[in-house]
Design a protein that fits this description.
Blueprint: H1 2-38, H2 41-54, H3 58-70, H4 74-81, H5 91-103, H6 107-120, H7 124-136, H8 140-153, E1 159-162, E2 169-172, H9 173-188, H10 194-207, H11 212-225
Antiparallel strand pairs: 1-2
């Protein structure tokens, strides 16, 4: 009799636990939808975290990490999904790792994930990012190859945003790649490629007169050509 009673209590407890979990899942799913409709990012993060605790899912972790990186919370993004390059990583996970590591000034680590993305879907956007990272780690030949690919495959409607001014601005991707090619060539041989680099920066400015970074770079290189007055 005692065994039967214990079994009944155990089954009842399991049933109540299952019911409570289902209710909590429904609650946080509704909470997630509500926070999303209100544009409350922190509320969405809280809801997604609770849902993942109740019902762990790699897809939820990837989404949560993407929200973090979109908000500039790069360490939290990486703490959510890690920094290892796994063959099973989703495209979202790979993109998050690339973006977060680049933002955290880890060009070598970020480059690994940008190259994974490029292998899956090569395009001029990724070619620019790879060239930029390779320039940072002084792989100038590799950087030039990526820029050349980008220029050969760029489309007229492609744009690149820059944020060094108080007001962010956009230029054509072709102009951005031309600017980057100028810097790469200059760094490959500062004496012999100075004029070529200035010429390329002029091309970039012809395409996008508002290209502030190209103008600053051109002014700096022209200043190197001008002899200092005694």
């Amino acid at each position: 009799m005692k065994k039967i009673l214990c079994l009944v209590v155990l089954m009842t407890s399991i049933s109540m636990t299952a019911q409570t979990k289902t209710e909590l899942l429904n609650h946080f799913e509704n909470y997630y939808k509500q926070m999303k409709s209100q544009g409350d990012v922190q509320g969405v993060i809280n809801a997604m975290t609770h849902l993942n605790v109740l019902e762990p899912s790699q897809q939820r972790l990837d989404t949560l990490a993407y929200i973090y990186v979109s908000e500039g919370r790069n360490l939290e993004a990486l703490n959510t999904i890690g920094i290892d390059n796994n063959a099973t990583d989703s495209d979202i996970s790979t993109e998050v790792k690339a973006l977060a590591l680049k933002a955290l000034n880890q060009p070598k680590r970020a480059l690994v994930f940008y190259e994974v993305l490029f292998k899956k879907e090569p395009n001029s956007y990724l070619a620019y990012e790879i060239a930029d990272l390779k320039t940072q780690i002084q792989d100038l030949a590799g950087a030039k190859a990526s820029v050349d690919y980008g220029l050969a495959n760029v489309k007229p409607d492609m744009k690149k945003a820059f944020y060094e001014t108080q007001q962010p601005y956009e230029v054509s991707m072709k102009g951005a790649l031309t600017y980057l090619k100028a810097l790469i060539l200059y760094n490959m041989n500062q004496a012999d490629n100075l004029d070529k680099a200035i010429s390329l920066l002029d091309e970039a400015l012809t395409m996008d007169a508002n290209f502030n970074l190209a103008q600053i770079s051109k002014d700096a290189l022209v200043a190197r050509k001008t002899p200092k007055k005694e």
